[in-house]
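User: quick one - fold this with glyoxylic acid bound?
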Amino acid sequence: MEIVFASRHESNPLEWVNALQQALPEHRVRLWDEGGSGRADAAVVWAPPAELFVREPGLTHLFNLGAGVDALLRMPDLPDGITLVRVEDGGMAVQMAEYVLHYLIRESRDLGRYAGLQAQARWQPLDDIDRDAWPVGVMGGGVMGARVAQACAALDYPVAVWSRSGRPVAGTRAFSQDRLADFLAGTRVLVNVLPLTDDTRGILSRAVFEQLRPDAYLINIARGDHLVEADLLACLDSGRLRGAVLDVFSREPLPSDHPFWTDARIQVTPHVAGASLMSLTVRQIAGKVRAVVRGESITGVVDRARQY
Ligand code: NAP
Ligand code: GLV
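Assistant: Sure. Structure tokens for the protein plus glyoxylic acid:
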């Protein structure tokens, strides 16, 4: 196979090319250059240039370096027949779990307030935690969502998971798509780990926030376009939501004059909740390339109709 690596985001793409080449010595791996060779069978990509599909018409497989394929599916020249394969975990799920736990614990134990008390040299223990007052609802029970949910459940928070199928996630209550209202009614900390699709775009809206338990908290680590920004601000203003942590935004990087930067109720991080780790991701892709060459089926193939 000839495999081309094409990413507009990698600062050192040659590192990826070398790692892939080492993992697949029997294949040829090369860096995308504007001309293309016209001979590539597969591409490993993250935000690839649009010309890739024009210059490499023989591509049969596209290995995405991330879990979310929404940006790829929006590319106008993406050929219908090409098989899209996403990263399954790649070291991201445990990072997503860490991220959520960090903010969940900080909020539920009020740990942020101790900095203010320290500044005043005040020795003042705050209230004990009542975990039942902090039920967590995870939207999306896939590779990321299941790991996040189980990590919260392992610390004895009550956890519910909402997914299309309502597939069970051990230690949590599962809700299928048609039970959104029941799921929201029992949730105080809403964590979004859904893929961005036509069905889920704008799902984090006033209509959803208003069904949560009082004094609710939002953690969005999926995609910025899941969130209706004006609804978030309105629900923070009305007190319906106590705060939010946002890792992803409709425009990234978040513009420097965006109001989220200076809003004390919102914590902003720069799309870092989970990064695919090179060694694990390369090993996974190499295994799948070999399986494809042997004519075997592989996991992580995107269902174009479902958009994830
Ligand atoms: P996944 O394994 O495909 O899981 C997707 C989950 O969402 C599944 O449980 C699916 O239900 C559910 N779902 C899809 N559409 C739904 C709908 N309309 N209603 C209810 N549930 C729906 O995906 P993943 O690997 O967990 O990744 C999820 C997303 O996380 C990615 O798409 C990406 O946007 C985001 N992400 C962000 C970062 C970051 O750094 N911020 C890192 C990695 C991933 P079923 O189980 O029934 O199919
Ligand atoms: C990151 O956002 C991913 O989708 O992997």
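One thing worth noting: The first helix runs from residue 13 to 23.
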